[in-house]
Amino acid sequence: MDAEIRNAQGEKLDYAYHSAQGDCPFTVIIGHGVTANMNRPFVEALAKGLAMAGIPTLRFSFSGNGDSEGRFEDSCVSKEVEDLGAVIDAVKAKGRRVAYVGHSMGGAVGVKRAAADDRIELLVSLAGMVHTAKFAEVEFSEETPGSGFMWGKEDCPLSQAFVDDMNQIGSVLGLGAQIKVPWLLVHGTVDDVVPIAESREIFAQAQDPKELFEIENCDHVFDAETDPESLPVMVRKVTEWLLPKTMI
Prior knowledge:
The chain is built from seven helices and seven strands; from the N terminus they run ββαβαβαβααβαβα. By secondary structure, the chain is of the alpha/beta class. It has a single domain, classed as Rossmann fold (3-Layer(aba) Sandwich), CATH 3.40.50.1820. The longest helix is centred in the middle third of the chain and has 17 residues, at about 75-95. The two termini are about 20 Å apart.
């Protein structure tokens, strides 16, 4: 895939496309979490694993993140929902069906998009954020919007726009029942960024078909230093879950 992708603001979104052999009609889109980008090791590992299994995959950076155009200060769930829509537009323009995998805040983005956009036919949440206002309060309440930084990262300033959006959304828990497509939720039991309880909560609200897969001793980013098996377990689970559903 070589199309240029721009969001509603005209900002170019950086992406990497992993082609696959075979005739799979789906493209899996992978979206990352807050302060991250498409080059997180586990994102790249998952994209490569899916492609090797025969599922074409596109990983991208939301606007203001990585090499995508835009200001990081403007990055928030609501804008990223629009970004995802632009990526879906580009994938659908190629005649492809869409599955979406979202990590952390990208998981909340996926829930909001899938609840309103039936072009997403399969949904996967990796350590998906549910309670957005709570997240902003717990993680960044000691920082001042406009002068503070997210987790001390000077290239990730905390903006009032981000805080306001997180508070306005509050939680995506109520959208769980509106997801009408097959949904896989994957979460590590020792995640200290987005507690596994959030996946359990929204899973209870979700309609069938649904599955919650918990990985013991796994942290928020499937880090090999925390548990060497967590990353391959995640990649294998997502791949095995998607394979029979994307080969239709």
